[in-house]
Amino acid sequence: MESLESQLLVAVPQLPDTNFYHTVVLMVQHDEEGALGLVLNRPSDVLLADVWRNLTGEEIPSRQSLFFGGPVDGPMMAIHQNAQFADSTIGDTIYLATQKSSIEALIESGSTQSQYFTGYAGWGSGQLESELDYGGWFVTPSKPDYLFGAHEDLWKKVTQDIGERILMSSLSGQEVPIDPSLN
Questions:
Q1: Per-residue DSSP letters for 93-142?
Q2: pLDDT (tens digit, 9 = 90+) per residue, 96-147?
Q3: Lower CB density within 10 Å: C or N end of the chain?
Q4: 29-72 tens-digit pLDDT
Q5: Residue 20 contacts residue 105 (beta carbons within 8 Å)
Q6: Average pLDDT of the chain, as a whole number
Q7: Would strands 65-68 and 114-124 be described as parallel, antiparallel, or unpaired?
Q8: Which of 106, 41, 37 is nearest to 67 (CA)?
Q9: Nearest to residue 114, comparing CAs of 154, 74, 85, 73?
Q10: Cβ neighbours of residue 174 under 8 Å, at least 6 residues apart?
């Protein structure tokens, strides 16, 4: 089994699970025991600053939303790009903060792109592989602009990028006119 860690799962349009309709999931962990991911495009109405104030009594200058990482309840987590605050690594340049002290230091630093989550997407042993065999997900490499960019249209952007890659690979070597009416 090849690990999908650091890859993106992109829900196919026909995926019947309403928890994952039009979602893009960053795979944080994937091995024989199962998989864990974070939904990148489900912002909540809850602001990180409000959560932080409730937890610590301190104010932070953030307008960032807390994201629903998936349907499984879990602790607050953050993805970011600063190794100093990493509890684990996702791929080469993306880090995960799960410990309260790491998240606190990350928030207080304000020095790196980050996204905060509550909950996660989880699969038991073999469950994700079955969903992939069924055709429920596209798999594509993650890119920083997918992880920390505009999230409102993320699913649409990533599926368009996948479609363009498929089209370009099928044309391999053929010339594509700039104006399709010239075909």
A1: TEEEE-SHHHHHHHHHH--S-EEEEEEEEEEETTHHHHHHHHT-EEEEE-
A2: 999 989 998 998 887 788 999 999 999 999 999 999 999 999 999 998 888 8
A3: C
A4: 999 999 999 999 999 999 998 988 888 888 887 888 999 999 99
A5: no
A6: 88
A7: parallel
A8: 41
A9: 85
A10: none
Interatomic CA distance for residues 36 and 98, integer angstroms:
13
Question: Terminal CA-to-CA distance of the chain, rounded, Å?
Answer: 43
Residue type at 20? F
CATH topology of domain 7-174: VC0467-like (3.40.1740)
Model pLDDT, residue 143:
85
Of the pLDDT bands very low, low, confident and very high (cuts 50, 70, 90), residue 174 is low
Q: Which of 43, 47, 71 is nearest to 152 (CA)?
A: 43
Looking at residue 51, its amino acid is V
